Amino acid sequence: MTDNIQPGMTVQTGGNANIGKVVNFSDNYLEVEATNGDHYWIPASLIENVGESVLVKGSEDLVRDRWLSKDPAAFKDELVDEASAESFPGSDPPSFTPNK
Fold first, then answer.
1. Cβ atoms within 10 A of the Cβ of 11, count?
2. How many domains does the chain have?
């Protein structure tokens, strides 16, 4: 079903509200340019049907509650940076104290 998603396709909710147009699609997210020009990433799990347009499950409010306003790839980098910072100094070797 999702194999037919193409850039420029209209994205609509189950209530026929126009969300925007497809910019890109990956396995996990549908990048959409909203009618106001902003970009959002909608989880692929919300895709209900693909025909002449992409139909997403739920109301416009539900979709807005679930979409991301930042590229999900950026979150991965932030999580790695945060995990790295939290592991320091735990990853440092113990200090050496010679016997006196």
1. 24
2. 1
In tens digits, what is the pLDDT along the chain, a chain of 100 residues?
A: 678 899 999 999 988 889 999 999 987 899 999 989 999 999 999 999 999 999 999 888 888 888 888 887 776 666 566 556 555 555 566 666 777 5
The answer as to whether 93 is a domain residue is no
pTM above 0.85, yes or no: no
Cα–Cα nearest to 8, from 25, 19, 27, 23: 23
Query: CATH number for the domain including 38?
Result: 2.30.30.240
Q: Is residue 100 part of a domain?
A: no
Tokens representing residue 57 in the block: 């499950």
Domain ranges, residue 77: 2-87
